[in-house]
Amino acid sequence: MFVFGNFFVALAKITQVVLTLYMWILIARALLSWVNPDPHNPIVRFLHQVTDPVMDRVRRILPLQFGGIDFSPILIILAIVFLQEFLVTTLYNMGVMMGR
Length: 100
Description:
This protein has one domain. Helix content is 79%, strand content 4%. It has helices spanning 2-32, 42-61, 72-99; strands at 65-66, 69-70. The termini are close together. The model has no long low-confidence stretch (mean pLDDT 91).
């Protein structure tokens, strides 16, 4: 059973890294929205390609633009923090319990 325990611990750690990386990508996208970046820049295009699917879905469900400010990144970051605290912790604890 310890193999499944190690699997869940590894899955929790990978999920934590992916969620943290996505959160930083989202923060970079939000910071870039304050300036007028070149839309043909590969970094800007990458940030838009990675974040647009999630942000568009959130904008469709909850239109969170007030006074020209888009609050959807804040909502997504809160969801990421929730997933980090709930999902990652649960996976890690399952792995530790199975490893015993």
